[in-house]
Amino acid sequence: MSKQYTCLGMMSGTSGDGVDASIISSDGQNYFKVLKEKYYEYDNNLFVNFHDLKKKVNTFKDLKLHSNTINKLEKDITIFHAKIVKEITSNLNIDLIGFHGQTLYHSPKEKISLQLGNGNLLAQLSKQKIIYNFRKKDILNGGEGAPLTPIFHMYLLKSKKINLPAGILNIGGISNLTLIDDFNNNNISSKDVGPGCCLIDNWIQTHTNKKYDFNGQISQRGIIHELILEQALESYENNFQDKENFSFDTNDFDLSFVRGLSLEDGAATLSAYTAKIISSNIERLSKEFNKRAINIIVSGGGRNNLNLMNNIKSFLPKNINISNSDTHKLNGDFLESQAFAYLAIRSILSLPVSFPKTTGCNSPCTAGELISLD
User: Fold this and answer.
1) Do domains 5-147+334-371 and 161-328 have the same CATH topology?
2) pLDDT digit string, tens, across residues 322-345
3) Helices (DSSP H) in the chain: which residue ranges?
4) Which option is the CATH number for 5-147+334-371: 3.40.50.1820, 3.30.1330.30, 3.30.420.40, 3.90.78.10?
């Protein structure tokens, strides 16, 4: 039996609301077991400071302009992660940590993906081996640095014996899809397929004291403004449809087209807009399967937005079956943090994480940098 590592994976998603933490035992290949999981919500200052900065950073020049603020926030976010390590590992010994950090700026065109998180500082504070900077090697290898989770998705689909072709759709701030027709690493395909909850969350945060639309209840009460929706989708098609993007940043989408609408109508129209983009990209990427039945498992916080989920289902053809990850005994709140623990172990073993059909990289490559105080 290959060596098993105990690894803590910490993931701060594109929603920017906190950190998912998962401790797993795995060999980075065919053995995987969850030992402990917990969500740590950002305190109000960290939440506000990050989202205020995120709104200001829209170009590479902005990174330089706000460098002092970025460095201060990165330190604060790293200290927040260090406190998580101390709390969640209090009664468990771990071998290493997969530290994703908080994505501030992602630009495939510029080959930049910046995650706030100081690996050296976390290593000093936690006295643990750290794998971080997961996206750099892929970018240097010609890829976009995202999505990185498909190899883990393939393991999950295989372990749950899901009939192929199948996929995993993760709806966080951004939505990404992994599609698999056979369990050959080189045949995994994956792409970001549009916004996830970023637009709806932004709208809710701007107009209420809430952070998101709980279960889609606000959007459910609203009316979709069809003309506004149609124009926004046409604009999206003009901007993105001819480009072979593997990944998106939340800054690629804005909610200006719903300004002036009521809270409920704006949420309903944004939900329909998000669902239309996701479903059209799923349908486009699934064409190679020639209308065979496809099983897609949905994870991430967006799976709990019932209005969004119903919209996605209604826009998809009948051969594409959508199911909630929870029905497969997969905790959809923690698949990403599990993934980065799994990827950290693969990094230690120099196993590939990225593939040409998942990030656009030139050849399969591993991910992450190791920091060890030994």
Assistant:
1) yes
2) 999 999 999 999 999 999 999 999
3) 44-56, 60-65, 67-88, 119-126, 136-140, 150-159, 198-207, 217-221, 226-240, 263-285, 306-315, 335-348, 356-359
4) 3.30.420.40
